[in-house]
Amino acid sequence: MAVTLPESVLAQYERFSLYNSPYPAHDGGCAIDLYPGTLVDGRTTAAPSPVAGTVRETRTVRAPPKPYAPEHDHLILLEPAEGSPLAGLTVRVLHVEPSIEAGETVERGESLGRLVRAGFFAPWVDNHLHVGVRAPEQNPYRASGSLPIELGVSVRPLAWDGTGRVVSTGDTYAVLDAPRHPDPGAGFVGVRADGGGVLDGGLPHYDGGGVLERDDDTDPVVSLNGDRLGVADGRTITWDDVTVTANGEPITGLSLFCARDGDFGAKLICPDRSFAVGERVRVRVRSSDRD
Fold first, then answer.
1. In a shared domain, residues 94 and 159
2. For 241-270, how does the pLDDT look when each residue is reduced to its tens digit (9 = 90+)?
3. Which terminal Cβ of the chain has fewer Cβ within 10 Å, N or C?
4. 7: helix, coil or strand?
5. Are strands 149-152 and 3-6 parallel, antiparallel or unpaired?
6. Which residues lie closer than 8 Å to 88 by C-beta, 6 or more apart?
7. Residues 136 and 217 both lie in one domain
8. What residues contact residue 206 under an 8 Å CB cut-off, 6+ apart?
9. Which 8-state DSSP code applies to residue 66?
């Protein structure tokens, strides 16, 4: 059984990803990270609810220990309203310090609280809501076990030749000006794989990724600009043993996701390297057995 998140849910957020995570809860696209677009001091703090419904429960949960983040997070369980496409299911939300309590009703888009950065976050990951959906007979507290998520929106694949200029940087990342969103706000886009489909995931710093909007009869070998990335089983990719390079030198990887905002561009994960704004960069993916 899979559940579809309709456009009315996804259009509330600037970005989303099914696969850009190291955690098993995302295996097979069984969870989605939703990135709101309101920034305060460079970080998103608003936490719009993905659905209308009733708060079933809130609780504090442990997070992996990280020196830069608290060791606790928060779980919110929502029961979608009657008439909702998700009615009868349980929606579980992480990474929000709740401002609501059990028994309260919320509208779609109403704030659930304040987004928080717990030990689940790598330093380069932006604030987001982690969302999964469970059937009534499923344990809502286990980290894994949510239903596969299908997208009720189309994602436009954007060709990218692997080049661009740096437009912004952080301590662990750099963002390029390409590929550009052709019509910001009008729909979601992502980096196109050779042969079609949109790439999603952390390449290769997380174990695998996904390829969305791809024909079922397409060659399972997935590549980008002629560089082989891995093999797809359905929409899920197992990455090959590869290294991402920027101007010929290794970096940690590429962060691949779907976005509808005008700041969309390739995101380089590079905690051990620095890039200057305006610097021209060429990205390639090299197999470990390549001479």
1. no
2. 999 999 999 999 999 999 999 889 999 999
3. C
4. helix
5. parallel
6. 80, 136
7. no
8. 19, 20, 21, 22, 253
9. B
**CATH code for the domain in which residue 82 is found:** 2.70.70.10
**pLDDT at residue number 38:** 53
Q: Could you tell me the two tokens for 161?
A: 């030749």
Are 205 and 129 found together in one domain? no
Give the residue carrying structure tokens 């899920």. Answer: 236
- Beta-bridge mates of residue 69: 66
Which tokens in the block code for residue 55?
């708060």
Measured over the CA atoms of residue 260, residue 206, residue 227 and residue 218, the dihedral's sign is negative
Same domain, 99 and 181: no
Q: For 76-110, what is each residue's pLDDT tens digit? A: 999 999 988 899 999 999 999 999 999 999 999 99
**Which ranges of the chain would DSSP assign to H, the alpha helix?**
7-10
Looking at the fold, whether 139 and 184 belong to one and the same domain comes out as: no
CA distance 39 to 54: 27
CB of 247 within 8 A of CB of 162?
Answer: no
User: Which residue range forms the structural domain that includes residue 209?
Assistant: 154-287
User: Which residues 6+ apart lie within 8 Å of 231 measured at CB?
Assistant: 220, 221, 222, 237, 238, 240
Q: Are residues 236 and 208 in the same domain?
A: yes
**Burial annotation 257-284 (CB, 10 A radius, 16+ → b, else e):** bbbbeeebbbbbbbeeeebeeeeebebb
The Cα–Cα gap between 49 and 166 comes to 33
Same domain, 232 and 146: no
For the chain, how many structural domains are there in total? 2
Same domain (yes/no): 118, 211 = no
- pTM passes above 0.90: yes
R_g of the chain computed on alpha carbons: 19
End-to-end CA distance of the chain: 45
